[in-house]
Amino acid sequence: MKNIKTAGILAFLLLGTATAFSQSRKVESTKGVEKTESDKVIHVEGVGHKLNYTLNGGVVEVEGGDNTLTVKGSAKKITVSGTGNTVYIDKVDKISMEGGGNMVYYRTSGTKSGKPDVSIEGVGNKVVKQ
């Protein structure tokens, strides 16, 4: 009986693992970090990651806390939620932030004003031109 239960649990775990790997995502870290959809979406979630990416016109999504991302290239939109996240990017058009103590540093923007469209909810969130 114990062997049957163990075999059942093992089969369930293997099936779940196979399903996870069959999806169209490239997992860069088992700690909750993903880069998805053929280099057009960078999605990071978790705590304490320090990551570097190259992006050309895609989307950056950050969820969690104390993550630091450096993105070379451009993004149409950056979405940050959580606390203490920092994003460095060369060029961005739109920034949306929720939570507290998040920072986005950018060099330029593709908008007419030269500044990204910014939506901020929360306390201590900042967007700074470098």
Provide an overview of this structure.
It is built from 1 helix and 9 strands, in the order H-E-E-E-E-E-E-E-E-E. With 130 residues, it is of the alpha/beta class. Strands 1, 2, 3, 4, 5, 6, 7, 8 and 9 form a 9-stranded mixed β-sheet that branches. A hairpin with a 4-residue loop joins strand 2 and strand 3. The radius of gyration is 18 Å and the shape is globular.
Structure classification: alpha/beta
Sheet with the most strands, sense and barrel status: 9 strands, mixed
Rg from Cα:
18 Å
What proportion of the residues is helical, as a percent range? Answer: 10-25%
Mean pLDDT: 82
Distance between the termini: 65 Å
Protein traits:
130 residues; alpha/beta; nine-stranded mixed beta sheet; 1 helix; 16% helix
In short:
The chain is 16% helix and 62% strand.
Topology overview:
Elements: H1 2-22, E1 25-29, E2 33-36, E3 41-47, E4 50-65, E5 68-83, E6 86-100, E7 103-108, E8 117-123, E9 126-129
Parallel strand pairs: 3-4, 4-5, 5-6, 6-7, 6-8, 7-9
Antiparallel strand pairs: 1-2, 2-3
